[in-house]
Design a protein that fits this description.
Blueprint lengths: L1 E3 L2 E3 L1 H27 L4 H31 L1
Antiparallel strand pairs: 1-2
């Protein structure tokens, strides 16, 4: 059992959450790159700042799991 912010998770649940965080991070990185390079499409240009913010949040989420795994070593 692992404790994260007062919640208890089994090892399988933590691994599932880690995989989901990795997937979210990877999707946001690709979307952010695509929208940043397609400036001629106005709708993509408009959501680029939102994706940049989401990229930062996904990076923080992913770093939580990286730090969690490195503390076990």
């Amino acid at each position: 059992m692992n404790t994260l912010k007062g919640f208890l998770f089994t090892a399988d649940e933590v691994k599932t959450l880690e995989n989901l965080a990795d997937s979210i991070y990877n999707i946001v990185v690709v979307l952010n790159y695509y929208c940043s390079n397609k400036r001629e499409i106005e709708e993509l240009y408009n959501i680029t700042p939102i994706l940049a913010n989401l990229h930062q949040l996904a990076d923080k989420l992913n770093s939580i799991f990286i730090n969690l795994n490195s503390s076990k070593i």
